[in-house]
Write a structure and sequence with these properties.
Radius of gyration: 13 Å
CATH class: Mainly Alpha
Distance between the termini: 32 Å
Number of strands: 0
Number of domains: 1
Number of helices: 6
Structural class: mainly alpha
Order of helices and strands: HHHHHH
Strand content: under 5%
Helix content: 55-70%
């Protein structure tokens, strides 16, 4: 995996921990992304080890991501927040904080969050 891919997955781990719990459904999504990125077993194990303890936005090296990576991360993050069937207020605030840390202007952030939320709701129904 490339560095930006590790950053993306580690960021998704932090999103999964946003509500204080890493659920099995969230772990499954992380595993799917590891597979999509063709992670070696050693790389996958590194991410699994990383995911064992709670993570926050402060743990992430977000500067490693391009603008398109930042957009993709936010969209994937929204899906993770819905994976258990609902998105709570803590997760919503986390997504806004993530977008702000990614340096997104408010109009771009709001547009991406709205689009990704609609997509996630369709996927979950």
């Amino acid at each position: 995996m490339q560095d930006y891919q590790k950053t993306m997955i580690k960021s998704l781990v932090a999103v999964a921990w946003a509500d204080g719990k890493l659920r099995s459904e969230e772990s499954e999504v992380i595993e799917a992304v590891l597979s999509a990125y063709n992670a070696s077993e050693a790389e996958a194990q590194e991410i699994r080890d990383y995911a064992r303890t709670p993570k926050t936005l402060e743990d992430l090296p977000l500067g490693d991501l391009s603008e398109s990576d930042r957009d993709a991360l936010l969209q994937h993050a929204v899906i993770i927040t819905f994976i258990d069937g609902k998105q709570d207020d803590v997760e919503q605030r986390f997504l806004v904080d993530l977008a702000n840390r990614l340096g997104m202007p408010a109009d771009r952030r709001d547009s991406l969050l709205s689009q990704a939320t609609a997509r996630a709701r369709r996927l979950m129904s």
